Amino acid sequence: FRRSSIFFDQSALEPVELEDHEEEDEGDYRPVADGIEGCIGNTPLIKIRSLSEATGCIILAKVEFLNGAGQSPKDRVALNMIREAEEKGLLVPHRGDTIYEGTVGSTGISIAALARALGYKAHICMPDDQSKEKSDLLHHLGATVERVPVAPITSPDHFVNLARRRAKEHTESSADSSRGFFADQFESEANFRAHVKTTGPEIYAQAEGRVDAFVAGAGTGGTLSGIAKYLKEDRSLSKLRVVLADPQGSGLYNRVKHGVMYSSTEREGTRRRTQVDTIVEGIGINRITDNFEAGRELVDDAARVTDEQACRMARWLVENDGIFAGSSSAVNCVAAVATALSLPKGSRVVTILADSGTRHLSKFWKHVAEMGLEEEEHQDLLTTLGLQQ
Ligand code: PMP
Fold first, then answer.
1. CA 24/CA 8 separation, integer angstroms
2. Is residue 32 classed as helix, strand or coil in its secondary structure?
3. What is the pLDDT of residues 131-156, one digit of tens each?
C-alpha cells in the first residue's frame, strides 16, 4: 500500500517517484481512513491471467469497483466535484444544500453516498431504462430519485436537463440559505481532473511506468480523457496507444475513426437514435461531451464491441478468472484483447473494471444466462469472441 497517493493528499499531485515503490514502511496495511471518503482510490491493478495467456500480452485491469463509497470509478469523480465546489463556495456542508445530478446510475450512487458522509442531500435524475438495482440502491442511500423516460438531449425533460433545472429551482425558491448545486459530470472539468489527479498516477506507479496501451469505454469520457492526459501529457508516454472501447450503437466510435458523430444505425439511414442501442450500461453515447472532447486528440483508435461479445467475455471472465464483471467492464476487456492482438507480444495493455456484475443482475446478467453460454462447449478465447489473430 502506497500512502503517497491517498486521495487529495497534495503529494498525490506530484509526480510519483518510482523508487518509493520499494519502501514498505509500517508494514503492508492501509492506515485508518477518515470516513468512507478515505476509502476512495488506491484500487488494485490486477493481471487478468486468461486474457494475457490468450493474447501473449500482459492485460492489466484497474479494479475500480473496489472504491469504497459507491463501488465504481465515479467515487473519485463525485468526491472531486464536491471538493472543487466547496472550494468555490458553491457547496457548504450542513447548510441544507442538495447536490443534483443527471446520471445513468454510477455517479448518482457515489454522490448519494458521499452526500450523506459530507453533509449534503442528493437528488438524482436518471433514465428509466437502467437496471433496477441502481435505482433501488439510490433509494436505500437516501437520495431523491426521479426516473424519467428516455428523451433527446434537446428535450427539457432529458435527465441531465431536468437535474440542471431542479438545482436552479431549489436555489431560486429557497426560503433559507440552502442552495442547489448541479454537479454536471458530462461537462464539468472536475470529472476528468479526478482521473488526472488520482487514477492516472496510480496506474503509472502500479505498472512501474510501462504501459503500451490504455483501453476504456466512455460515458462522459472523463476516465478516458483524464487517464490519457496524465499518461501522455504529464508522463510523456508519447508511444502509448489510447483506444476507445465503444459498445454497438454508440456514435463515439465514428467520432474517433472519422471525426464525425453518427451511430451505426444512423449510417444505415434509419431515424436518429438518442438512445444507444445496446444492453451495456454506463458507456456509449450519441452526443459530444466536454469531458470526451478534452482528451479526444489523445485517442489513437476505437474498437467497436457487440453485445454478444460483451456477454461472452463476461461469462469467460467468471469461468476462467473468477471475475464477476459489469457490462462496461466486459466491453473494456473485449477491446483490450483486440488491442493486444494488434501489438507486439509482451506489450502491456491496461483497462478498467468499472463496476461489478452485482449491479447488473436483472438486465445484463439475465441476458447472459438467457444466451445459454453455460451449456456451450468450451472454446478458446479468440474463437469465442470471433476475433482472429
Ligand atoms: N462504466 C460504468 C458502469 C459507468 O457507469 C460509467 C459512467 N457512466 C463508465 C463506465 C464510463 O465512465 P466515464 O463517464 O468516465 O466515461
1. 21
2. coil
3. 888 899 999 999 999 999 988 888 99
Please check the confidence at residue 171 and state whether its pLDDT lies above 70: yes
C-alpha cell at 172: 431560486
Q: What are phi and psi of 306, to 5 degrees?
A: -85, 160
How many CB atoms are located within 10 Å of the residue 177 CB? 9
Query: What mean pLDDT value characterizes the chain?
Result: 90
pLDDT (0 to 100) of residue 260: 79
Q: Could you tell me how far CA 355 lies from the centroid of its own chain?
A: 8
Best substitution site from 223, 230, 252, 292 to test ligand 1's pocket, by max atoms within 8 Å of Cβ? 223
**Helix locations, 4-158, DSSP H:** 49-55, 74-87, 106-118, 132-140
- In this model, does residue 10 exceed pLDDT 50? no
Which of 74, 197, 232, 363 is an active site residue? 74
Query: pTM of the full predicted structure?
Result: 0.90
H or E segment and range at residue 124:
strand 121-127
Q: Which amino acid type is present at position 38?
A: G
14, amino acid identity: E
Atom of ligand 1 nearest to the CA of 104: 8
Rounded CA-CA distance 113/120 in Å is: 10
Whole-number pLDDT of residue 268: 40
DSSP, collapsed to helix, strand or coil, labels residue 258 as helix
> Residue with the nearest Cα to atom 6 of ligand 1?
282
The answer to whether the beta carbons of residues 276 and 250 sit under 8 Å apart is: yes
**Residue 58 pLDDT > 60, yes or no?**
yes
Cell of 263: 451511430
Alpha-carbon distance 233 to 216, whole Å? Answer: 18
What are the φ/ψ torsions at residue 104 (nearest 5 degrees)? -85, 0
Is 88 considered catalytic here?
Answer: no
- The ipTM is 0.99
DSSP bridge partners of 121:
98
Q: Give the pLDDT confidence of 335-345 residue by residue, as tens digits.
A: 999 999 999 99
